[in-house]
Amino acid sequence: MNPSPLWIKNGRVIDPESGRDAPGDVFVLDGVLADCLPPRAKREAVVIDAADLVVAPGFVDLHARLGEPGNTACETIASGSRAAAAGGFTSLVAMPNNAIPADNVGVVQLVKEIAAKTSLVRVFPAGAVTIGHKGEKLAPIGSLKKAGVVAVTDGSDGLQNNEMKRRTLEYASMFDLVVFDHCQDTSMTHGAVMHEGVWSVRLGLRGFPSAAEEIVVANDLLLARLTGARLHLQHISAAGSVAFIRHAKAHGVPITAEVAADHLLLTDEALRDYDTNFKLAAPLREETDRRALAEGLRDGTIDAIVSDHSPVTPTEKDREFDLAPFGAIALETAFPVALEALYHNRDAATGGAFPLSLVVDKFTRSPARVLGLDAGSLAIGKPADITLFSPDECWTPTADGFQSRSSNSAHIGRPLRGRTHMTIVGGKIVFSAKPRV
Amino acid sequence: MFRVCLRGGIISVCLPGKRFPYPYMTDDTETTEWNRKDLVAIEALSSSEIERIFAQADVFKPSLDSREKLMSLRGHTVVNLFLEPSTRTRTAFEVSAKRLGADVISIAENASSLVKGESLRDTALNVRALGADMIIMRHSSAGAASYLARVLDIPVINAGDGAHSHPTQALLDAYTLREHFGTGPRRSIAGRKVTILGDILFSRVARSNIHCLAKLGASVTLAGPTTLVPMTFTTYPSVRVVHDLREALDGADAVMLLRIQHERQTTTHFPSLGEYTSMFGLNRERAGWLKQGAIIMHPGPINRGVEVESEIADGPHSVVLEQVRNGIAVRMAVLHLCAAAWREQRHLTAGTGKTAP
User: Fold this and answer.
1) Which residues in chain A have their CB less than 8 angstroms from residue B214's CB?
2) SS (H, E, C) B151-210
């Protein structure tokens, strides 16, 4: 049975796809967007008062770890989808590198089945590039594509060998599959736990030099040029990487790139008290990097903002810094963090505040385009994936306030501006902060 | 038997028939209270807090010649949790705690439940539950001491955490320098030139000394191969980085040699120990580049023939064994002050470590 018609009234409608940014109403009939409702549907419609709120396409996250199958102590597809809905995301690309890797058709089908049964949002599985992410033997990429993966990636472990990377790109291009790369030269990052710089020296911790990322970015750009295949660079964190990507795009190399929201707001100084919730890969870097990332978003060098949601149980995070796993949960904070860093930016030296529509674009139209997903738009006839948010409402995340099964957030106790009020997937309300109907 | 009397937070030590003078009673230190239950890193300390420790060490040092124990930590159980190999530091802490009258238990990693997979938090909480009043920890991970101090309500003394900090080593080094340079009532190492030579990148001793010497007004030169002494260290206050040994030693008042730590180097940072010695080893000729009367220090253990020739390590300008001895006095001071601050915080009476009703 189709959900009730929706009449979302009096909001500020932002749709980057059409360039619309104006007050107005949005209608949903039979789970898709409509330009108006017939009289009968209008009488039956659920009316949502969106006064003071922005009505935007549902957010699309290219980079989330949902833990299932294999790491369900930290997250499940169900809990991850609740976190996504609370953060305004309606589509997620689920990373394949759990303890049970998505390097075969069975696991991909399992993810799809569990998602169909338990997920509040759309889950698009990504597959492994190599068996077990070991970088030795190609996974059955064609079969994975048939099973429904939208991209393939090996995380930080797999693709270190250029011959393997080149053949992967060529082979994946046969299926129009995008290869996602976590850019890290692991020969330079043995034992590294944070950005290499002033703070790593002070804290006595081993660092990831920026060059360990930049080298792989430059390398990948050359391979993308060589093969003409579609390559997408994950969670870019260093200023040099942004410059390389800008140069390559100017020369027509078919490359896309993303940045994790946390990297837009935080720097390595946050690690000064050895708080393991700031231990991320890619690592938080310096202020110059943070600014370069924002600049890259503004001029289109970087296509998308992602959550890089990485749940880790409190037990695993609560230990010596060197021994704690990398990652932070971010589905529920990514959009507010990006607003805080970009839309609420008052620093004229960095170009001042981003237009709200540009921030929304980096969460909707642009990431959907990276994979050609039918999402991130409010066009008539599209699936009604819609997010209602307040760009200015201030709130403070707390450790016990997350929908995620884990609480390893880098923003606990930090006031953020911007909050999701309602999330709609296929015309169905999957999250509502307070009654708006 | 010693008598110990508390006076304005500073303990004075009295031997029967003999009374030690109070050379430390400067205006500064008398007004400085010590309020920390933990000693995790030098970075957090003010220069007057450092002077406060030195003043207390001055009180304790003369007692080292006696065979009698003090009673400041009587009834306290001090646990030495050493999760990385150590001879000097572990023994020095053990001796220090025992001289203050504490009961000392030493736990090594291979003898602890950590090898069975117990977490540091659980090990520490269990040790606490067994009645520990104070934990002294060495750990291979930077930040482990501050983690433990957050977990536990009892004093945590950092005996070295990864490449981060080794505060008591820096304090005993500065104390040794101050003893050596000091003549007047206001002993000072301000304005002195100290060169730290060797494996700086992986050294917690260097990091702690940089902070400590800067706070006390000395200027610090870091020297060694480019791979072990990156220019990033110039972001510390009052620090310069030099990769030429002659320039590094020229006119220095003191040189601190650091051990080349094979066990911390995951990749090759220099071709061989032989090449290191040929470029940076301290021998008689090179020691002549130092200022006349400059002292030679080493935190130990020494790789003889690598970073220093034996004749220099054992020579008249070497203060290596004085450092070890001062390590007892300084650590006694640290244990005493932190325990006293903790008792104060917990409204406990001096002399007993057990919870008051």
Assistant:
1) none
2) HCCCCEEEEEECCCECHHHHHHHHHHHHHHHCCCCCCCCCCCEEEEECCCCCCHHHHHHH
Which phi and psi (to 5°) does residue A122 adopt? -80, 130
Residues 6+ apart with CB under 8 A from A140: A104, A105
Q: What angle do CA A381, A384, A386 make, to 5 degrees?
A: 135
Q: State the Cα–Cα distance between residues A307 and A262, nearest whole angstrom.
A: 8
- Token digits for A326? 């990398």
Active site residues of A: 308
The mean pLDDT values, 10 residues at a time, for chain A of 437 residues are: 87 96 96 94 94 97 96 96 98 95 96 97 97 92 97 85 92 95 94 96 96 97 95 97 98 96 97 97 97 96 98 94 96 98 88 94 98 96 97 96 96 96 97 75
| pLDDT band per the 50, 70, 90 thresholds, residue B2 | very low
Which element (helix H / strand E) includes B307? none
A204 touches chain B (CB under 8 A): yes
- Tell me the pLDDT tens digit for each residue of B189-218: 888 999 999 999 989 999 999 999 999 999
Closest residue to B235, CB basis, from A198, A273, A323: A198
The answer, for A314 touching chain B at a CB cutoff of 8 Å, is no
**Is residue A120 within 8 Å of residue A98, measured between CB atoms?**
no
The pLDDT tens digits of the residues spanning A217-269 come to 999 999 999 999 999 999 999 999 999 999 999 999 999 999 999 999 999 99
Question: pTM here?
Answer: 0.90
Minimal CA separation from A264 to chain B, in Å: 24
Complex ipTM value: 0.87
| Chain A residue closest in CA terms to B40 | A273
Over residues A124-171, the pLDDT tens digits come to 999 999 999 998 899 999 999 999 999 999 987 768 889 999 999 999
Nearest Cβ partner for B147 among A198, A201, A274: A274
- Residue B318 amino acid letter: S
Distances in whole angstroms, Cα of residue B144 to Cα of each of A287, B115, B134, B139, B156: 27, 17, 16, 7, 11
CA atoms within 13 A on the CB side of B114: 20
